[in-house]
Amino acid sequence: MSGLLILLAIVTVINFGRSKDSETEHEFTANNNELLMTNIRCVPKIVRSYEKVKDVYGGKNILFFRYVNNACSSCLNGYLTEILALQEEIGKKHIWIFPAYPDDRSSRIQLSNELAKYNYRNIPCDSLLIPIYEGEEKSYFAWINNEREIEMVFIPDKNKFQDTRNYLLEMKQIIQRNGRGE
Predict the structure, then answer these.
(1) CATH number for 59
(2) 55-59 average pLDDT score
(3) Burial level of 94, CB count in 10 A (0-12/13-18/19+)?
């Protein structure tokens, strides 16, 4: 029994050291293999989908968040809170929310109420892909660079919210390095 407690203490110390290191890292890295696999499987489809609509929706130096109307509400609120904090620091000009809601009066009213503090545009699911992974539609973040190409696609994991914060911190630094994207 005491051996088990010693082993547990060692694992705790190692994990504590790792978490301290990851919080001070300035470069975003996806350490979660499943998250990485999700990105590998979904990114090519997202990019192809974006190429079809970039002339209509693709500005440049834009960080966007894409989600569907049946997304986990607590997860969505957490992501939107993080985005709001980011835009308060760097301005909202280059941060967009691209929800995928039905194009009806009720959805327009809902979006105008929920996203009043953000730049947003409702884009149908068939125009800009919402990837499906393990039977679930996945929200994602992506960066549209100076050449209007999509890159740095990030699919958040609701169980690893710190990864989302790290991603947004990296995006903040990119925007600041680019003169706030202007």
Answers:
(1) 3.40.30
(2) 77
(3) buried
